[in-house]
Amino acid sequence: MSSAQLEIQLIASIVAVACAIPGTFLVLRKMAMISDAISHSILPGIVVGFFITQDLNSPLLILLAALTGVITVALVERIQKTGLVKEDTAIGLVFPVLFSIGVIMIAKNANDVHLDIDAVLLGELAFAPFDRLTVGGTDIGPKSLWVIGTILLITIALLIAFFKELKVSTFDAGLSASLGFSPIIIHYGLMTVASVTTVGAFDAVGAILVVALMIAPAACAYLLTTDLKKMLGLAIFFGVFSAIAGYWVAHWLDASIAGSITTTLGVVFFIIYLFAPSKGLIAVTYREKQQRIEVSLLTFLLHLKNHSEERERHVNHLNEHINWQKVRSKTVLDLALKNNMILINNSIVSLTEKGDAFTSQAINYIVTNEDAQIEDMKEDFFLFRG
Amino acid sequence: MDDNMKESNASTAFAVKVDDLTVAYNYKPVLWDIDLEIPEGVLMAIVGPNGAGKSTLIKAILGILKPIAGSVSIYGKPYKKQRSLVAYVPQKGSVDWDFPTIALDVVMMGTYGSLGWIKRPGAKEKKAALEALEKVGMLPFKNRQISQLSGGQQQRIFLARALVQDASIYFMDEPFQGVDATTEIAIINILKELRKEGKTVVVVHHDLQTVPEYFDWVTFLNVKKIATGPVKDIFNDDNLTKTYGINYKVSVQK
């Protein structure tokens, strides 16, 4: 591995971490789309900044462009506040206008500005190691590494200092306001960090990947944990993993690095969406099936409790009167037998003592409207789940 | 209860004083020129039809909404200076219960106000939160993910979060909405206990039947204030009709 390759992976990883932190809060605040808006509408800010500084990595350019990002958020809220259109429409109105102003500015000054639309959308991570920062004649590494590294350090410092405030204002803005932590200040603080990160990462990975790196790792983490700190950690992990894996995919395919990283993120999300232990598609489907069988079991036990006459308790009665198909009746009977809740004598089903206790307690919870307790109760009674 | 009321009547200290308060959404007034004095130590219900501005009134008192006119004082000073004296329980539906956190952590949020910016909660805050959970009977659920709690349990968590603030005045927005009968009784007992400790409790309430049983003070609100005072004096058909517009017959049994 050459030092240029190492530097590219390092830059991509740091970008991923810097994006995952604000991204986690954007996902929890249901504001994922706003990062898309910011990433596009900072373009005019970058162009104007470039006119002034002639340097894509100048701090002034980053601040100017970040300001455009914050203006986007303010404009979206302004339009939304009129009550004439909803938030998604407001976002859709604001960022294309700002983005296209940037596009026109680049086109009109194509000769003076070393910027092109491809670079804006996809970034030029492969070229990042060639733009070096030199201090007093010594080479101290790629400029973009220093830029995004500084942004990451500031982001981490802010996260540690204001973690509590971010958490409470994200969970409950009303409480946050009444406690004296202005949700508006925290909101714009977060938007500023998101904008600065976007600009810092923009040069390296482009407008589209910035959005993917903010949202996809946080969305993956959201499916895997119920703890905010772990969610941040997992989002960072998935971001870095996809950045490095994506780089090597690009290397083998000889394709765009930004494109490969984004594709990897998509694949990672899809895998987690399928296999996440409690929120994943497979787990949810399995749980629904289990629920269905256990509800059937309870229905069947209630029926047994309500009827003492033999005719009603015959095994065949299940198919004929309760109207269940053979397979389902058999599953339910097997489950009840496995859990020692019923006895079958000459095809006549009767409740055991345990089955009777289970049913009585369940009825009690249903009547008193505490259905949620039934789930806990199952833990006490079931030897095997449905 | 009678002793308590005499005390509140005699004392001139008002826990909350609202003066000429007007709140508007998009220039349409939701609350119109409200004057309201809430004496210290009462357990007060705010009643009124949907859209009467009950929640808005609480939010305006707490500075969550900006009024277009009027002022609010808590023990004679503006709210901003008296934050530590006030606890707020928002409507349960106002937050996303899928937020990745556990019950204990939500209760800990109640301590953030006294900590101020940047400082983090420590062992002392954790102890207070655990005690509050114990008080509302939710200690066994302290590590439960909040989306795994029933509606009644979520409401108790919110109540615990307010208790942990150890305030003098408690504002609650429909704490009985969507909770089972057991939780309702548990909550009202805690509120009555707070009153016994001399705290002031203000509750947005929907169930008119239970007003005389639960509360000693009531405010009728429908965009304008209709009446405020002791339940036994003013909770009558006349005020109910004025508030709800239709002829109400919920006579109060003494």
From TrEMBL, chain A:
Q: Quick one: a GO cellular component term?
A: ATP-binding cassette (ABC) transporter complex
Q: How does it sit in the membrane?
A: Multi-pass membrane protein
Q: Where in the cell is it found?
A: Cell membrane
What InterPro entries does UniProt report for this protein, alphabetically? ABC_BtuC-like, ABC_TroCD
GO BP annotations, alphabetical order: response to zinc ion; transmembrane transport
Q: Which domain of life is it from?
A: Bacteria
This protein's UniProt keywords: Cell membrane, Membrane, Transmembrane, Transmembrane helix, Transport
The UniProt entry lists the main location of this chain as membrane
**Positions of transmembrane segments:** 6-28, 37-54, 60-77, 89-107, 145-163, 175-198, 204-224, 231-250, 256-276
Q: Name one Pfam family in it.
A: ABC-3
The record's comment on protein family reads:
Belongs to the ABC-3 integral membrane protein family.
Q: Mind telling me what this protein is named? A: Manganese/zinc/iron transport system permease protein
- This chain's source organism reads Gelidibacter algens
Automatic annotation (TrEMBL), chain B:
**SUPFAM superfamilies the record matches:** P-loop containing nucleoside triphosphate hydrolases (SSF52540)
MF terms from GO for this chain are: ATP binding; ATP hydrolysis activity
- What does the record list as coiled-coil region(s)? none
Report the domain of life of the source organism. Bacteria
What is the official name of this protein in its record?
Manganese/zinc/iron transport system ATP-binding protein
The record ties this protein, via Pfam families, to:
ABC_tran (PF00005)
Lineage start:
Bacteria, Pseudomonadati, Bacteroidota, Flavobacteriia, Flavobacteriales
Keyword Protease applies: no
Its family remark reads: Belongs to the ABC transporter superfamily.
* Domain ABC transporter residues, every copy: 16-248
Which organism is this entry from? Gelidibacter algens
Sorted keywords for this record are: ATP-binding, Nucleotide-binding, Transport
* Presence of the UniProt keyword Hydrolase in the record: no
